[in-house]
Structures are given as structure tokens and as C-alpha cells.
Design a protein that fits this description.
The chain is of the alpha+beta class. It has one domain: Beta Barrel (OB fold (Dihydrolipoamide Acetyltransferase, E2P)), CATH 2.40.50. The protein is built from 3 helices and 10 strands. A hairpin with a 2-residue loop joins strand 8 and strand 9. The protein is globular and about 45 Å long.
Length: 163
């Protein structure tokens, strides 16, 4: 008797699997504790101090805002999890660029308004190697603020049409 070939396994989206694993872990152990970012890099919290975010320009980037959903914190590149903002480095139209500039300026204002907390996302990094965190202040999501102001959308994969 010839053994039959095994049925091919279905491809699993790693983003979905990661989210499912996190939900299972949270159900068993509760949600992760936020990391207070009040003067130290996200990977080494608790050293004290405060941040002043500049607008990122050419050259070295240390603590600055790249765009509405990406910033540098003490040399670590951070991607705000769960939102997507218009592109300013490679926009598809002028409307996207203009809205992206507004999103960047607003994120800079929000980051400079006081202490922030970095809460772990579904996975540690995105496909570009940026650390993923939900960014909050006093329990309020900065990403949710941008979505509410029309400067971002909830991230669902793919690229929204801002044009």
C-alpha cells in the first residue's frame, strides 16, 4: 500500500498568528504592564528625566519625529502600533504629503505634551525592524487621538488611499 501524500497545510498569516498568541497569553496571564518612557529608552525604562522631540532632519536621529506614526526615542526607532498615517517621504499625491505633514506636527505636539508610556504591541518589531509600541499618556492612546482627528487610520495591512 502506497502512503497518501499529506494534505498541504494552509499558509498562516504571521500577523494574525502573533495577535492570536498574544490574546491567548493575555487570557492566561493578563495584559502586559506598560513601560514608562519618562527619560530613558524603551528598552531601559526608569532612569528618570524628560524628552523633547524635535522634527527629524538629515543626519543622526536620536529623539525626534519622522512622521505621524514613527519617531526616534534616545536612538531607538519606534513605530506607533495599530495606526497608519499619510506618507511624507514617498507620497502618491500632494494631498497625502500635506496631510502627512500635519500628522507629523501633531504627533510631535502630542509627544512633547508630557510623559508617555510605551505599551507592548502584538509583536516586538515590524517588517522594517522598528520597535512596535502603543503610545499612551494617562491611559489615552496617541494613535487613537490622531485617528479621531482624521490624521491617521487604524492599521489593517496595506496602504490607504490618501489622495
Amino acid at each position: 500500500m502506497v502512503p497518501s501524500a499529506a494534505a498541504p497545510t494552509a499558509w498562516s498569516d504571521p500577523w494574525v498568528v502573533s495577535r492570536q498568541q498574544r490574546q491567548l497569553l493575555e487570557a492566561q496571564e493578563g495584559p502586559p504592564a506598560p513601560i514608562a518612557a519618562t527619560g530613558s529608552a524603551a528598552s531601559a525604562p526608569g532612569r528618570g528625566g524628560s524628552f523633547r522631540f524635535a522634527s527629524c532632519a538629515g543626519g543622526a536621529r536620536y529623539t525626534c519625529v519622522v512622521d505621524g506614526d514613527t519617531f526616534w526615542l534616545e536612538g531607538q526607532k519606534i513605530r506607533v502600533a495599530d495606526i497608519d498615517t499619510p506618507e511624507i517621504s514617498s507620497p502618491r499625491c500632494d494631498a497625502e504629503f500635506q496631510l502627512g505633514q500635519r500628522a507629523k506636527q501633531r504627533m510631535q505636539q502630542l509627544l512633547n505634551a508630557g510623559p508617555i508610556a510605551l505599551e507592548p504591541a502584538d509583536r516586538a518589531t515590524d517588517r522594517y525592524g522598528r520597535a512596535l509600541f502603543r503610545v499612551t499618556r494617562n491611559g489615552t492612546s496617541l494613535g487613537e487621538t490622531l485617528v479621531g482627528e482624521g490624521l491617521a487610520v487604524w492599521y489593517g495591512g496595506g496602504k490607504p488611499n490618501w489622495c
